[in-house]
Amino acid sequence: MKSRAAVAWEAGKPLEVTEIDVEGPKAGEVLVRNVATGVCHTDAFTLSGADPEGNFPSVLGHEGGAIVEEVGKGVTSVAPGDHVIPLYTADCGECKLCKSGKTNLCSSVRETQGKGVMPDGTSRFSTNGKSLHHYMGCSTFSEYSVVAGVSLAKVSKDAPLDKVCLLGCGVTTGIGAVRNTAGVEPGSNVAVFGLGAIGLAAIQGAVMAQAGRIIAIDINPSKFELAKQMGATECVNPKDYDQPIQEVIVDMTDGGVDYSFECIGNVHVMRSALECCHKGWGKSVVIGVAGAGEEISTRPFQLVTGREWTGSAFGGVKGRNLNGFVNSYMCGHIDLDSFVTHNMKLEQINEAFDLLHEGKSIRTVIHF
Ligand code: NAD
Ligand code: AHE
Ligand code: ZN
Q: Where would I find the Alcohol dehydrogenase-like C-terminal domain in this sequence (predicted)?
């Protein structure tokens, strides 16, 4: 079938909105119609060429809200007409990682996903006979996409797909990192570095966890208003200080915060986020994605003296639990609407990337 899609032909170049060919689903696969998709910083990261798993040409996008069109042989978890959120962290329930009960990372389709192909090693996308890669198992920048059956969360039909698409990545990641990865307790002090969708969602998660002080940090002060609306108790711009930001936070908090979250993808800030944690128990969670070849460093003494450094993918959330987040949105416990700063058509998708780079958007939702 034909589908409108935004194609990433090569790193660092704008996407081309064009018509592509989409093959029907093979066994274990599902054809979905994307109704809406968010544009996440990770899409921009991969398009930049910094992602070691970046494949070109490809159809990017991984924050979608979709409707099932057709299921391939053997798929019983969803049926045509079901509303779904594609998952870049699949949930097969049967692999070693799923069975461990210790992680949300599923290995069932991860290897082929990283190569930009379906589990059988081939692509369902092409244009003029040239094959296009899939992306993160989702490729939500195409009206029609084919995903593995294990990479879909069935969600309530009452939920607006142009809002709950943000639960396909950004908002779930931030809330989940606070709740699942860090386990923030009531009264604890939290620092959030980077106030895009991920950082703002981490603030929302911290409020839900009844954190005490929630310190929001960004070099773009235009982000502070929404951070306060989400529940930040203080906003700090590192550019206002001569000292390293970790020293500023340590001074503000009588020795450091209990939990910190890096929501930028900057390895130097990851170090600051660790080092602003309290001696003996402070825990820092890396959420931001850093480019190929980049590494983190700190004095091992930071760890010897009891700080913990960990990371979080999709907020540690299992895909099969995603409808719980959808229900929380529907009953007003999770705010998604405030994240949607812009709504656009697919044809405008490059503007959405520009706004993200300029720090002028939190999430642009693309409507097909
Ligand atoms: P975004 O671009 O909307 O937000 C990033 C924010 O960081 C911006 O407000 C920017 O001003 C701020 N910033 C930049 N440099 C800074 C610095 N030196 N100090 C303080 N603030 C700084 O991005 P986003 O969509 O919110 O994504 C954030 C990061 O999280 C990206 O790296 C993205 O790839 C990653 N991510 C990870 C996961 C995961 O599961 N681990 C999921 C989604 C996104
Ligand atoms: N492909 C990159 C890593 C990218 C990465 O870390 N992705 C995050 C999700 S970002 C969503 O916006 C993640 O969950 N990773 C776990 C996984 O299994 O991909 C690289 O460095 O190779
Ligand atoms: Zn994302």
A: 197-316
